[in-house]
Amino acid sequence: MEIPENVWTSLQERLGYSDEELSKFKENANNQRVLKCAPELMAKTIVAEVVYSHGCNSQHKVGDKFYMDGSGNLLSKLCPSRMCVYAVSALRPLVYAAHELFYNGVDPNKMVFNHCGCVDVGLECSGWGRVVMEVRMEDRATEKT
């Protein structure tokens, strides 16, 4: 699939690239591969659901969900009103892994290690609390986004 010129122009404007930078970007086959997957990825929502919570100072509860678009951008209007930076930052490796699987034609929901937790070690280990989340990718049409 050839990437239309208007996509390159739009990307150049979005990222603020010079012509030279865009040329360098286009030379990287991985960037082209990602762009070819973009329309399908934009039809997805990444969901991180709290599956365990105890002693969380930000009050995250089991069932709370953090929603991200297919690119991994938080959809803050759909997320809890307070989002703990330590819980959100724990999502980074799993969102990255979901993208890698997706770009390689593998269903991200087949990820074996799809849970992560905030950096607080919990009361038992001299912390305050603990939050564990499960990450999955869903079709956007089935979610609130």
UniProtKB/TrEMBL annotation:
This protein's superkingdom?
Bacteria
Q: What name appears for this protein in its UniProt entry?
A: TIGR04076 family protein
| Source lineage | Bacteria, Pseudomonadati, Thermodesulfobacteriota, Desulfomonilia, Desulfomonilales
